[in-house]
Amino acid sequence: MTRPAAAPLALAVCLAFAAPAIAQSKAAPAKTPIANYWMDVATVHLAIPGAEEAADMPLLGGLMGNMFGGSKMGVMPGKWLDLSLYTRQKPGGTLGTHAIPPGQNMGPSLPLEPVARPKPGGTAQDTPTDYEKPKGRLLLYWGCGPTVRQGQPRILDMATAGPQDFARFFVGRYAPERGATSRPGHAIWPNEKDNQRVPKNASLVGEHAVSGEGVPPTLKFALGERQDFMERLNLAAPGDPKASIASTWNAVPNARAYFLSAMGGDGNDMILWSSSELPEAGLGLMDYLSHAQIDQWVKDKVLLPATTTQCAIPPGIFGTAGGAMLRGIAYGNELNLVHPPRPTDAKLLAAWNPEWSLRVRVKSTAMTMLGQEAQAPREKKKEEPANPLDILKKGIFGR
Questions:
Q1: Phi/psi of residue 111, nearest 5 degrees
Q2: Is residue 358 within 8 Å of residue 221, measured between CB atoms?
């Protein structure tokens, strides 16, 4: 699916596994499960000096959350889990419980709390009335290799560009939300009652069960290592930004594909690069993708195959930037279950009444600085930022 990646992503989450109508004289109605359950599983690695100490800062955490492709998933280094439950029998939300395996090391269960509905009202005074048109340019590069490809960069002058110009510049692939959404009617974890951190040694492998009013008692399932927390993506990009930088990473077990993107600035220009062979900023790709999307976009050479462990960033792209950040993602294996399973015999489909569906999505993400290891160890230059927040401000936003 292709559309302007800068536009807001679709907020509606389709009910999973609706059975298509049967070709009869009178089409059979689509079947939807009584309950739907989502699990989003992420591993986050920040290879930035001082990131672990500074990640608790609200401003830095929010900024990094946007850069990693989603605000609901935490961005502190470690393992992250988001759970969401919806049942048609209690559309306003239900109090639920997720019984977890002992290896998760988080107690016997996790509480699922309904998302509060927003209070009615709101005023227009929260909307800023003064708008200053941005200045400078956006430069987009793409592709791995020792040289910049012919016809690059794609350039957008922000001082003269209109909304359609921005839309054309950022046109790209994206994945509509299909996971553990925090929205009214859903019961979620983490929540105000329980927001404990996932331990470093946590494992999801084992038996799980979800219960609550309006939830079928059969909502039980087992997860294997393909849906467990993925290994950390150790992304590195040492070297001189004026030269070609060899970005490398480890082969993450169970990864189906990889994608890299970088961002930097020199005070006047914002510079973007991605590992795609096609013009693609990748703003919509730093998130969970379905198997079909991964397979197709690997075929299109937008994503890197699972056998890839290196990508050369062409020379000179970030040579004048005050700093640049590189981020990467390893896409994991998605699990989709429905109970009872959808009959393969069309004659039995009319009597099929699914009780619940499950979707588990897995990813591993990383962020590092371009040329980080090229700097002299423990030696600070006067113009060198003092902490990761300063690095982000100076290197990415050119301030």
A1: -80, 140
A2: yes
Assess contact for 84 and 96: CB atoms under 8 A.
no
337 forms bridges with which residues in the sheet? 358
| Total residue length of the chain | 399
pTM of the model: 0.81
* Degrees, nearest 5: CA angle 352-353-356: 130
- Check if the beta carbon of residue 138 is closer than 8 Å to that of residue 269: yes
Q: Is 298 helix (H, G, I), strand (E, B) or coil?
A: helix
H/E stretch holding 44 reads strand 35-47
183 and 14 in contact (C-beta within 8 Å)? no
Q: How far apart are the first and last CA of the chain?
A: 35
Give the H/E segment covering residue 164.
helix 163-169
Q: Which helix (H) or strand (E) holds 397?
A: helix 397-397
CB atoms within 10 A of CB 164: 9
CA distance 399 to 384: 12
pLDDT tens column, 288-324:
999 999 999 999 999 999 999 999 999 989 988 878 8
Tell me if residue 148 falls in helix, strand or coil: coil
**pLDDT tens for residues 335-382?**
999 999 999 988 888 899 999 999 999 999 999 998 865 433 444 444
Distances (CA, A) of 281 to 22, 126, 168, 171, 174: 41, 31, 11, 8, 11
In eight-state DSSP terms, residue 81 is E
Contact 110, 188 (CB under 8 A): no
The residue behind tokens 């969970």 is 288
Element of type H or E holding 38 = strand 35-47
- Longest CA–CA separation in the chain, Å: 78
**Ramachandran bin of 227, using left for φ above 0, alpha for ψ from -120 to 50, beta for the remaining angles:** alpha
Distance from C-alpha of 288 to C-alpha of 43, rounded to nearest angstrom: 12
